[in-house]
Fold this protein.
Amino acid sequence: MPQAILLQDVESLGERGTVVDVSKGYLRNYLVPRKLAQPATPGALEAAKSRMEAAERAQEEASARAEENAALLTKTVLTIPQQAGDDGRLFGSVTPQDIVDAIREARGLRIDKRKVHLEEPIRHVGTHMVVVEVADGVTATVKTMVVDTE
């Protein structure tokens, strides 16, 4: 029974990069023409192993970088000036996009506005704690001060 290295996730066989045993016909007639797998030659096995190791190293580096950025954001205090009335109510509101722009200006970090978790836009002057998802599973709580522009 020949072995094949999966080039993409195949639901019935496994995930990308794994080595699986398949029949000759299935490999030759289905997997290879659709570029889902390649025959597992010694050179291909070595290349797949080095690719997997490189991907693991890149994943570890990305998670370490995300942890550093989260620690940096936790120490950050954002000040967002907005126009407000006498009672402290903003004429507009502070949206996730405003928070992302303030983070980019203060720390130079690019964060997607969908990763800023606000239950509702901020509509009052004051200090608010905002949860920002830096990467998958890595969050930081950023202290955000909304001040009146006078």
Observations:
- The CA atoms of residues 64 and 70 lie 10 Å apart.
- The chain has three helices and nine strands.
- The two ends are 77 Å apart (CA to CA).
- The beta strands are 3-6, 19-21, 37-39, 77-82, 89-94, 116-117, 122-124, 126-135, 138-148.
